[in-house]
Design goal:
2 copies of one chain form a homodimer.
Chain A lengths: L6 H10 L8 E7 L5 E7 L10 E6 L3 H8 L2 E8 L4 E12 L6 H13 L2 H5 L15 H4 L12 E15 L6 E7 L6 E6 L2
Chain lengths: 195, 195
C-alpha cells in the first residue's frame, strides 16, 4: 500500500505538536439510529501497519458501537493547537472486537491493548459507561487486568479515510487542500481549494 | 428563561481555560444529505441573550448550510485542554441568514458581524470556499467591509442543546453527568452517570 498524500503533512503536525499530549485527541462523529450526529473526543493510537487507517480504541458497551454497526461511515475532526491546522478525515469505520475472526486484526487488537497504560486498561473493567451512577468508588478501583489478554469488551476501531480536508489557519489567505481516494484506481487526488 | 444546569460548569470551564484562545473552539457535527456525518471546528461566539443557545457564525456558501436545512440536528463536542473536561451538546440548529424576517434574530446577526475582527469579516468576501483554488492572492485581499452591514453570505448559527453530556477526565474514577431537557415541561433533568 502507498502512503496517502495527507500522511506526510499529518505526520509533520503530530511532530510539531508533540509536546502537547492532547495533540493526539480528535473528535469522531458518527450517526445515531435516529439519523442524528454524535460527536466525541477519542485518542489517536497510531496507524494500522502498512495502511492509512487510524487506530482508536473503544468499549463495546459504548453507544458508538451500535451506531457504527448501523452506519459505518464516520468523520474525524482533528485540530492542532500549536500549528493551527485542521484535518477532517472521512471514511469507513471497522470494529475489531473479541469475536473478530481475522487473525491480523486480532493481533492488532492485542497490541493496542498492550500499549494502553494500566489505568486506561482498568477503565474497561468499570461499571457500564453512561448508566446512572449507583456504585461506590471501589467498583471503579478493584479491577485486575493483565497485559496478555484484553478484556472482552475492549475493542479496536479503525478509520479508513477516503476524503480528507486539510486547512492551515496560519497565512493570509489561509491554505486548504482536498484529498480524495478514487475507489476504482485506489489512487488519491489532491486539490488546492479555497479556504 | 432559566439557565440550564450545564451552563454554570461550562462558564467555569471557559473561565479556567480563558488564557487559551482555542478554548473557544469546538467541533460541530452535522449530517450530509447522503446520511453521513460531517465534522468541523467552529468558534463559540457567546450565548444568544436570555437563552441557552450557543452562537456560531458561518458562510452561506459552506457545505453545512444545506446539511442543516436537510437535518437541523447537530452535536458539538467541546474539549477543554487545561481542565481536561468534555462537553457534548446536542440539539437543533437554526440558521439566521440575510433573508431571516425575525427582527430579534436579525439584530443578533448584525451584532455577531460587528463583533468579528476585520480579518474575519474579510473572509466572507473571499472566493467560494471549498472550490478549486484558481485565483490570485489579491482575490483574497481586496475586500472592503463595513461594520454596519454584514455581507449577504454572513450567517449566524444557533445551537439549542436538548442533551448535554459532561465528562471530567481528572479524578479516579472520572466524573460524568448527563443533562436532558424534558420537551413538555421544558425543565432539565440532571443525572450522575458512569464515566
Amino acid at each position: 500500500m502507498s502512503l496517502a498524500p495527507w500522511r506526510s503533512p499529518l505526520s509533520r503536525s503530530l511532530h510539531l505538536n508533540r509536546s502537547l499530549p492532547h495533540s493526539r485527541y480528535l473528535q469522531l462523529a458518527t450517526i445515531t439510529k435516529e439519523g442524528r450526529p454524535a460527536n466525541r473526543t477519542v485518542v489517536f493510537r497510531g496507524f494500522f501497519p502498512d495502511s492509512n487507517q487510524l487506530q482508536i480504541v473503544t468499549d463495546t458497551r459504548s453507544e458508538k458501537i451500535s451506531q457504527i454497526k448501523h452506519q459505518p461511515w464516520g468523520e474525524a475532526c482533528w485540530y492542532f493547537v500549536k500549528t493551527r491546522e485542521q484535518f477532517r478525515l472521512a471514511g469507513k469505520l471497522t470494529l475489531v472486537s473479541e469475536d473478530c475472526a481475522d487473525r491480523i486484526l486480532q493481533q492488532a487488537r492485542l497490541r493496542a491493548w498492550q500499549q494502553l497504560s494500566d489505568s486506561a486498561k482498568k477503565q474497561f473493567a468499570w461499571p457500564d459507561p453512561g448508566k446512572t451512577r449507583t456504585e461506590e468508588e471501589q467498583a471503579f478501583a478493584s479491577a485486575q487486568v493483565t497485559a496478555d489478554k484484553p478484556l472482552p469488551n475492549f475493542c479496536l476501531l479503525l478509520l479508513n479515510p477516503e476524503m480528507v480536508d486539510r486547512l492551515e489557519l496560519r497565512g493570509n489567505p489561509q491554505n486548504r487542500w482536498s484529498y480524495s481516494l478514487d475507489s476504482d484506481s485506489q489512487t488519491w487526488l489532491t486539490r488546492s481549494v479555497n479556504p
